[in-house]
Amino acid sequence: MKAGIIRCMQTEDYCPGTTDFYAIREKKGAFAGVEGEIQLIGFISCGGCPGKKVLLRVRELVKRGADTIVFASCIQKGTPMGYACPFAEKMKELVRRELGEDFPILDYSH
Ligand code: SF4
Fold it and tell me: Which atom number of ligand 1 is nearest to the Cα of residue 50?
């Protein structure tokens, strides 16, 4: 897997992504059961509320080789402070439309 991770910009001050990197390294959470090496292509924020920059960032991740887009848990689960992104569904809809139905998109990371 070549993962491109989108994270919440509002959460960056709370979290440097340690658990995401752990989940990739140990194949836990959304990465459990992945066969072979997991390569991290990029780890970038959505670009800030209300998430309209997400497409530009996803395009760049895919251009650089990502074959799976991962929404970090801070977005849809709201970790670590229990505050999910109010724009998560819209962002996902945009990304799904951009990449097509068959492109792997993970809703959380851990
Ligand atoms: S749009 Fe959502 S994911 Fe992006 S910074 Fe705002 S709350 Fe976070």
Answer: 1
Structural domain containing residue 46: 2-106
Q: Is the CB of 74 under 6 A from ligand 1?
A: no
User: Which pTM does this prediction carry?
Assistant: 0.96
Strand-strand pairing, 68-71 and 2-7: parallel
- Over residues 17-73, the pLDDT tens digits come to 999 999 999 999 999 999 999 999 999 999 999 999 999 999 999 999 999 999 999
User: Which domain CATH number covers 99?
Assistant: 3.40.50
* Domain tally, the chain: 1
Q: Is 26 left (phi over 0), alpha (psi -120 to 50) or beta?
A: alpha
Residue nearest to atom 2 of ligand 1 (CA): 85
What ligand 1 atom has the least distance to the C-alpha of 46? 4
